[in-house]
Amino acid sequence: MPIREAHALPPREYETIAVDPASLRLGWFPVTARARHWTATRRAFEVRLDRGQTVTVSEDHSLFTLDPDTAAVVPVRGDSITPGMPLVVPYDLSIAADAWAADLAELNISELPAACATRFARPSIVRDGDFVTNRLRKTQLPVRFPVDDEFLYVVGLWLAEGGKEPASRRPVLSFSVGGIPGAAERLTAYFARYGVNVRPSPANRFDFQVASSVFATLFWHLGLFGTAKAGRKRFPTFFWRLSQRQRRLVVAGLWDGDGSRVFKGRTVLAQKSHALIDDLYHVLLLDGIFPNVKRGPNAQKLLYLGRSRDFARFVELYPLAHPDKRADYAAAAARTARDKATGLWKCSGLWRAVAAAALPAGGKTAVYNRGGKYDPGVRAQRAAFADVPALAALVRSPLAFCQVAAVRELPPVEHMYDLSVAGAETFVADGVLAHNSGYPDCRPEFLAAFEGMANLATKAGTEGAGRFRVHAPLLKLTKAEIIREGVRLGVDYAGTLSCYDPDAAGRACGRCDSCQLRRKGFAEAGVPDPTAYQP
After folding, report:
1. Residue 297 contacts by C-beta under 8 Å, 6 or more apart in sequence?
2. Given Cys at both, which of 56, 286, 308, 430 links 97, Cβ 3.0 to 4.6 Å?
3. 50 and 405 in contact (C-beta within 8 Å)?
């Protein structure tokens, strides 16, 4: 879910998908705090990557990159992200998909008549015992409406080839499925269960109509209204409550309707409804499929599959009914091709690790050649480094390195949202690895709450002897401003430490987010940095 919505969740224990900093393995980690930052005085940036992912970050919060000198995954501040830089992106979240193993069996639609009453001057939908129906009592839907596989596939077909304006009052659902093998027959069989006829259009062989005020109201109530032309289609409101298996059925219907055949080694799904593409990206990522997202013509957003592994997973997991598409994808899955989309980022640190490894005679040369040390590409074949001990965690990790395609500064944003994650210092935001908040007690909201608590929970506060006030003069200063103020006050910065992970001698690591913020602050303040850093 969007991080703004996660911030608004009721109090309880939550977990998020994050990366263990030692092993670089993905897993579920406890969320210890949800923070909302005042960022109206901070710069904000939209970062777009070469595979189409976008993420928004403030100047003083961090994503992750690869240190070119050490080949280590390290934080990078928002205002230090530049085009051409690699950012860390998980490419396979399938280890987390078991969280959605239980099917959603039914939807409670008992509120359908009341919702209809707010929409229509003369509402026709009524409750009749355990059913929702209309005045004619012909079509009856159970109040506990079954979310079966055929319904989910029909929803997918609707997202691909149906659509109504949200303000539409006509009790007719139109599906343009005549060009999809077997779709009209499945549509007819499903609606026949509830006594509803599916009629072919007299105008052409593609369009089919479902004339039912009950089903039209149901689709509206579930948030399915919207048209492709206006770009307002999105997955239904219950979509993220489905199991991952059930989501695949919805996607199969959508892909049968809108997905393409394989052309020049890839297949594409194009939509003006960008929300569909964005959510579909995350669904596929949970199945270990790493799509490519691009801007297309006519305000479209495009989602591509091109890796042979992705075709193989898609054919295995997604029950496409279109026989030609299935055959195309199966053939594409059988191709043998190098996968550089998930390759390691070429940098001096990568080759230093190879040079320092104890490998058999000729082993290093083989790694250099297989990894493409002398090729102009930016990514190296991951399997080439399997025998280099220092790179083992990186090779085994489900982390890819996507190049920053563009950085766009945004108008001031009043608030941004963040998580603190125990034991990980990371979380996945919009498909990109983001840095753990780390400072939940340095927020205006925390200080205001602490001040209120002090005045409610102390004798002085409750007896009127005085009011406690929390002063945080550094809260809205940049690191450079803090350093200049410290210099003015005579602070000896050689005796201070900011590092998350100092060594036994007390030397700063120089790599963590706090160290990078400190270094940048000294540089921006024009003050020499006296910090003792580890070699």
Report:
1. none
2. 286
3. yes
- State whether residue 333 is helix, strand or coil: helix
Evaluate the CA torsion angle 316, 321, 323, 326 in order and state its sign: negative
Q: Do the Cβ atoms of 181 and 323 come closer than 8 Å?
A: yes
Whole-structure pTM value: 0.82
What tokens does 457 get?
């929970």
User: What is the C-alpha to C-alpha distance for residues 439 and 501, in angstroms, rounded to an integer?
Assistant: 16
Q: So what's the pLDDT on residue 439?
A: 58
3-class DSSP string for 249-283 = HHHHHHHHHHECCCECCEEEEEECCHHHHHHHHHH
Q: In whole numbers, what is the pLDDT of the chain averaged over residues?
A: 90
- Interior/surface letters 284-296, b for 16+ CB within 10 angstroms, e for the rest: bbbbbbbbbbbee
Query: Which tokens hold the place of 296?
Result: 């297309």
The CA distance from 532 to 495, in Å, is 10
pLDDT tens, residue by residue, 412-451? 888 888 888 888 889 999 899 998 755 556 666 677 788 8
Strand partners, 89: 400
How far apart CA 398 and CA 26 sit, in angstroms, is: 7
Query: For residues 523 and 516, what is the distance between their CA atoms, to the nearest angstrom?
Result: 11
The answer to whether 438 touches 425, Cβ cutoff 8 Å, is: yes
Q: What is the pLDDT of residues 329-386, one digit of tens each?
A: 999 999 887 788 999 999 999 999 999 999 999 999 999 999 999 998 999 999 999 9
How does DSSP assign 165-231, residue by residue?
-TT----EEEEE-TTSTTHHHHHHHHHHTTT--EEE-SS-SSEEEEE-HHHHHHHHHTT--B-TTTT
Q: Which pairing describes strands 125-128 and 106-108: parallel, antiparallel, or unpaired?
A: unpaired
Strands 62-66 and 292-295: unpaired
